[in-house]
User: What shape does this take?
Amino acid sequence: MGMLWRTTRMFFFLALFFLWRATAFPHTMETRQPFSIGNLTVEPGKTGSGWLRVPEKDGVGTALPVTVIHGAAKGKCLALVAGVHGYEYPPILALYRLRDMVNPQTLSGTLILVHIANLPAFQKRIIYYNPYDWKNLNRVFPGQAEGTLSQRIAYVLTEEVIKKCDYLIDLHCGDGNEALIPYTYWMISGDKNLDEATKHMALAFGISPIIIDESRSKDITDSRYLGNTAILLGKPAITTESGYLGKTDEESVSRNVSGILGVMRLVQMIEGKAASPFEPVWIDKYEVVYSKTDGLFFPRTKMGYYVHKGQLVGLTTDYFGNVKEELRAPFSGIILYIINTPPTNVGEPLYEVGRPKEERGGSPEKK
Ligand SMILES: [Zn+2]
Assistant: This one.
């Protein structure tokens, strides 16, 4: 009995002591820790940049330029990844602009900016692929620690960026050969809360149309895409597209910046109300049409145009100019992107058609 009393009394005084500590020095209990990624450590209220190393194998390695803006106040961690495709410039330029714009003293939470996720592709000015293994970085997630260079980049991004953030935006645009209208992928996970969070992110980014994308793998060992990997690890994420054909136009860059700021307001990292809700065009069905030909592609329509089912969208020819395929619209919808430079190869995308949800197969003239 005496023993029990002494133990109880000890716990009572311990509890009193911690209560006193918590009320007497509230700031010491809430001291904001530095944020670390790779070898880079950034103190609260500071912006810091450095290299995220991707280890060498067979003499080939790389490092990714990253910036951490670590807000003075606590809050969510938002990861922004540009340059997964190295010829997609407006998102890359938008992140440099953001680095100068965001004041860590007034920021709540932490921004991770991966400036150029596929630096080797950027350096060599290569669309789709990494020049050391000819893989598409956005098809090899979650990556492999001992894999090829693309797989190792994916692995580092999974471990150091996805696992450390609360939210993620994978920022894309039309690649160097793609004429593309702006749109966002809302990837459906099947988890109601997660899907609600990602829907709000897509709306806060502010681009219409939004693709309702139910096609992504639910298997984390074969997640393939950066955004999908984040979602399968429970982190709300969207994939955005703004920019086209290797251009650096102001409209595409600023659309990326304002979209990011919209999501930052949504998750309360900066002051200000989230943009007033808007009703985007929802795309409930989409299809990418791939080439069966090595040769040339000749588009017969343009990005953003509405095509009817069966309408001629483009032609492929061999290297002698003989027509090999007549490509048609698989259903009526909008041309989200279409290849706008001559080269085409077997298995590569030619165009993507998206069906607006409200249309239900009707034509815009009938509305
Ligand atoms: Zn891309």
Notes: The first strand starts at residue 35 and ends at 37. The chain is about 25% helix and 30% strand.
